[in-house]
Amino acid sequence: GSGGVLLVRFNGAEKSGQLLCVKPQRLEAKGELLASLLADALEIRTARLQILPVSEEIRSRLRKAKLEIGDHQLHLEKKILADAKYLGLVEFVQGPIKEG
Asked: What is the mean predicted confidence (pLDDT) over 56-85?
């Protein structure tokens, strides 16, 4: 989608310093979730996706998290925290990408 992602490290994550992609979920959210569930059912390895409603706790944790790209702090406030009702947390997987 065209919403963009933030690369974030959360303290206290399962794997210390784990990098996640945080993406606002808008019109494409249902399709992304369906694709993730279908890949799991077909046993195709993809990055794990978790959808979360944006709450005050989520907003607070995102503001405290370490953004990998400093310029993204503005993007966090204007694009994600301002109007997103749901966020997709996507596991960051190093390697080539495939789209289609």
From this structure: 77
